[in-house]
Write a structure and sequence with these properties.
Blueprint (H helix, E strand, L loop, with lengths): L5 E6 L7 E2 L6 E2 L3 H7 L9 E6 L11 H14 L5 E5 L5 H11 E2 L5 E4 L12 H13 L12 E5 L2 E4 L4 E2 L8 E2 L7 E3 L3 E3 L14 E2 L7 E5 L6 H8 L6 E6 L9 H12 L3 E6 L12 H8 L3 E2 L5 H13 L4 H8 L15
Parallel strand pairs: 1-4, 1-5, 5-7, 7-8, 15-16, 16-17, 17-18
Antiparallel strand pairs: 2-3, 6-14, 8-9, 9-12, 10-11, 12-13
Helix pairs in contact: 2-3, 3-8, 5-6
């Protein structure tokens, strides 16, 4: 491989690639030549930067598991030819894509950085320029021994590099659109890029990248609320083909103690439906042993999602279900950190 750092830029769609024509005011779709014109700073990198674009571009609201598989295929095909990858993506589902890719790219030893913007890159006050330039720099960054500094799937946004499967979108208007509530940033960007080596997952470069493409979408996210009716819960847990549920409970993993609720949940787990408990709170972890309500869920067969984001929990279930694992194996792996997505602490089940 050439000593010149090399990065593959993959444009899937989203605001960052909507470049405004200065003469007509119309928004034009991504074109790498347009990008170089609007971000001339890219030419100052002593990097080999290539691009691949989805045609047509995908609005992130339309992002599907088939697109995640396509991204994995592109990265796998080009893996030996580039030092890192930058994916330009709409913000709405970016955290889902980052979470899914973290599971689908097993034994990853190179950076895969997702970024985007809240304003098109051609506008005067765009946040896209800094996000793009810094993401490329991070994707190409290496230790003196030639290994990648950040061999993970990450999201970079507004001066923060975050583990992708720990990230969620928290703001529809401000530039600081993403937050990693339960895990610190892997790098802070100011005058310098300050990496946090103790927080970054260590790559095992002797292992070959193992791409995964199979996902099963017979899953649902189910949020509890005061006054929820048995008919609603019953209809959801009896949805045709349903295999797994991410249940967003109150506080540290609590749910109603009504007899009908516990019965519905237990009947579902007895039928083989996997129910994973995560908290509705933005930060914190599920601790089902802490209160009686949580203990009743354990007895009903519910498993802990620990401090997982909903994006990570649902994509992890899709990934595990897609590989034909047994119910027991899936439950065990949901209680295991596959790509740094959960933190297990004592007293948490």
């Amino acid at each position: 491989m050439s000593k010149t750092p090399s990065v593959l830029l993959i444009y899937t769609g989203g605001t960052i690639g909507m470049i405004e024509n200065s003469e007509t005011g119309a928004l034009e779709s991504f074109n790498f030549d347009h990008l170089l014109r609007h971000v001339p700073e890219l030419k100052r990198f002593n990097y080999r930067i290539s691009s691949y674009q989805f045609d047509p571009p995908i609005d992130s609201s339309d992002m599907e598991p088939s697109h995640w598989a396509r991204l994995v295929k592109i990265i796998n095909y080009n893996y030996d030819y580039y030092d890192g990858f930058v994916i330009l993506h709409g913000t709405d589902t970016m955290a889902y894509t980052a979470s899914a890719l973290s599971f689908m790219l097993e034994n990853l030893s190179k950076p895969v950085i997702l970024t985007g913007s809240q304003l098109p890159i051609g506008t005067l006050r765009t946040d896209g320029k800094e996000n793009l330039i810094t993401s490329i720099e991070i994707a190409a960054a290496k230790h003196p021994d030639g290994s990648a500094i950040v061999p993970e799937v990450c999201i970079f946004f507004e001066n923060h590099l975050m583990r992708g499967n720990r990230t969620t979108k928290i703001n529809a208007e401000n530039f600081n659109a993403f937050r990693s509530h339960n895990y610190p940033s892997l790098a802070q960007v100011g005058i310098h890029i300050k990496y946090e080596p103790n927080l970054i997952r260590r790559a095992m470069p002797h292992l070959v990248l193992k791409p995964h493409y199979l996902l099963d979408t017979h899953v649902v996210i189910f949020t509890l609320f005061p006054g929820i009716q048995e008919s609603t819960v019953n209809a959801l847990l009896h949805a045709p083909g349903l295999k797994a549920v991410v249940m967003k409970t109150f506080g540290s993993g609590n749910a109603p103690q009504k007899e009908w609720f516990i019965r519905q949940v237990k009947e579902a787990t007895d039928r083989g439906i996997i129910i994973v408990n995560i908290t509705q709170c933005a930060a914190g972890s599920v601790e089902m042993c802490r209160y009686e309500t949580g203990i009743h869920l354990i007895e009903a067969g519910v498993i802990s999602g620990y401090d997982s984001t909903s994006e990570s929990a649902i994509t992890k279930l899709m990934f595990l279900l897609g590989h034909g694992l047994s119910n027991k194996e899936i439950r065990e792996k949901m209680n295991t950190s596959l790509a740094g997505e959960i933190t297990k602490t004592s007293g948490v089940r």
